[in-house]
Amino acid sequence: MNIQSTIITLFFNLVILFFLFSSTNCISQKAANQEQSTTQAKRTNVEQDTLFSESLSLLQKNTQTYYASTITVINLKNHIELLASESFEGRKVGERGQKMAGLYIQDFFIKNDLEPAVPVDLGKRYIQEFEVEKSKISTITLKTQLKEKEIIYQNKEDFLANPLTYLHNENELNVVLTGYSILPNEQITGRGVALFLDTEDKETIFYSNQDWNEKTEKQVLLAQQAEAKAVFFILTNANNFKTNSKKLQKSKYLNSEIYTLKTEKSIGVYFLSMETAAKLFDYSEQEWEELAEQFEENKIPSSLPYATVSIDIKKESATTLDTENIVGFVEGTDLKDELIIISAHYDHLGQEEGQNKKFFAGADDNASGVAALMELAKVFASAKKEGFSPRRSILFLATTAEEVGMLGSSYYADIEPLFPISNVVANLNIDMIGREYVPKNKYPANDYVSIVGSNWQSTILHQTHEQANTTFTNLNLDYTYNSKTHPKEFFYRSDQYSFAKYDIPVIFYTSPDHKDYHKTTDTAEKIDYQRVEKITKLIFHTTWQLANQEKSPKKIEKNRFEDQN
Ligand SMILES: [Zn+2]
Predict the structure, then answer these.
(1) Given this model, what pLDDT does residue 207 score?
(2) What is the DSSP string of 321-354?
(3) DSSP, residue by residue, 202-252
(4) Which of 82, 321, 444, 509 lies 20 to 30 Å from 456, alpha-carbon distance?
(5) How far is the CA of 562 from the centre of ligand 1 (A)?
């Protein structure tokens, strides 16, 4: 069947459906009214009621149900089986399999009339290309030249370099100390910025994907936006410097190959002891302590202290890789400036090292999420063609390089957001939705999904998501991993985090921790396709609702670092 006839058939189906809906509507109106009043009486939360009934007529409900019905097991299964097949070679970042998977997603976006959104010289395209560096660092030294004398500082002794940031050489970098935070009017473009940092004895500062620290993260983002070259945090607590030094020595990242973004804007992050910082800025230790106190009392000196620092990085090996996010867009109508981002990573682990070279199929991780993303993109694009455009715009973002540190989403959010990052009202991220992960007897029908983050930042997002589920899909929403104190810290471990750090409300849909996770046995025949379909439908209804309801989900009432309970 060609495209035109598909459209005609679809339109025809739609007309028939509307007739059907309106006639059922008349017959069962009384019953529906009764049912509605009982459910309403059962509800206790008045606010939730207003939120949903405000925007959902029976016709709207039926429209949503119709479009959800176009999400099918067979389509999802086709994507998953193909992406997880040997011909995609495990979709390792920068390698052929990843690029083939990217092209597959792009073709699908084109075929289904998604709009391109990445600007190029003549128009727009679907591919957002960037560079990643894979390197193994051997030594890092800092140098200052004071009164004709060169002083050299060693990593792990005098300072700590964060191995997960883009550490690069700088010759005579001008570094300015701006106190405890970056001063709004201080010109730091092209310079280094030094900041005092107050920490507790045992506090972790920004070493692995799982050890985040709000204080450092905010300042690093500001420095990055201002196009500074490096950030030097000066730890005022000597015990904390020791704790983190020990932690760094033990870190698996220290002597292994790591991937970082390689862009003009990528910056290195360093932690200095008070002693090192005093020397670096040519102060006596006592003067330096006094200076820190002054800044703490907000007495900012009229001319800020500065130093000239050279950074010398020796790498055992370094390779630059090209890789691509794939992006499809559905522009909204009256609220089109507000953007919802649906994301799923399509890269995986490639092949095993050594002789027999089994490949990592990554059927659940994350062909399942990509299949959902593709089908969601198709539904919203076809609904728009048929006159049901979303009010808010929706961006479908298939990310790369997630497995090596969420670099694709970080590139999108930190370096090249295609629309202003402040206009993003929600991110729904899908990573692994095809397998069971809790003892089966807890939810016998296997009709559950793990939800992380929905109530961390926005009540509107959380309510919309729960109501979409009660109204349409009735899945068991499992919040086991949602606790802020859960040791697995899933909130920080997939692409949603790249958006949450900008205070964008997020939901992470997952089924983590099954026995084939990151093994070559994560294969397509083990996927529960009914389950993928149900979860995709839940995400569809939540997105539709978020895109069309009056209230914007972006209303931050909570700090994500505080406990939500
Ligand atoms: Zn994954």
Answers:
(1) 62
(2) EEEEEEEEEE--STEEEEEEEEEEE--B--B-SS
(3) T---S-STT---HHHHHHHHHHHHTT-SEEEEEES-HHHHHHHHHHHHH-T
(4) 444
(5) 26
Residues 6+ apart with CB under 8 A from 511: 364, 432, 433, 434, 435, 436, 437, 449, 450
Distance 332 CA to ligand 1 centre (A): 29
Residue whose pair of structure tokens reads 């506090």 in the numeric block: 203
Both tokens assigned to 18: 């509307």
Rounded to 5°, angle at Cα 496 from 391 and 424: 30
Cβ neighbours around 183 below 10 Å, total: 14
pLDDT at 478 exceeding the cut of 80: yes
Four-point Cα dihedral 231, 489, 324, 352, nearest 10: 110
Distance 311 CA to ligand 1 centre (A): 34
Question: Cα of 406 to ligand 1 centre, how many Å?
Answer: 9
Query: Measuring CA to CA, which residue among 423, 432, 412 is closest to residue 519?
Result: 432
Using the mean position of ligand 1's atoms as its centre, give its distance from the Cα of residue 261 in Å.
18
Ligand 1 centroid, distance to 366 Cα (angstroms): 5
Residue-level pLDDT at 116? 98
CA of 83 to the centre of ligand 1 (A): 14
Q: How far apart are CA 160 and CA 247, in angstroms?
A: 10
- Domain segments of the chain: what residues? 58-126+327-390+398-548, 133-318
Residue 148 has pLDDT above 90, yes or no: no
Task: Tell me, in angstroms, the distance from the centre of ligand 1 to residue 434's CA.
Answer: 12
Q: Residue 451 Cα, ligand 1 centroid: separation in angstroms? A: 15
- For ligand 1, the distance from its centroid to the CA atom of residue 228, given in whole angstroms, is 31
Please write the tens of the pLDDT for every residue from 515-536.
999 999 999 999 999 999 999 9
Distance from Cα 345 to the centre of ligand 1, integer Å = 7
Tens-place pLDDT, residues 160-170: 998 888 889 99
Q: What is the pLDDT of the chain when averaged over all its residues?
A: 86
**pLDDT at 14 (0 to 100):** 45
Paired tokens of 52:
């949903």
Task: Give CA 102 to chain center in angstroms.
Answer: 18
Distance of CA 365 from the midpoint of ligand 1 (Å): 5
Ligand 1: distance of its center to the CA of 494 in Å? 7
Give per-residue pLDDT as tens, 207-258: 655 556 777 888 998 999 899 999 999 999 999 999 989 888 887 777 788 8
- For the 133-318 domain, the top CATH level (class) is alpha beta
CATH class of the domain comprising 58-126+327-390+398-548: alpha beta
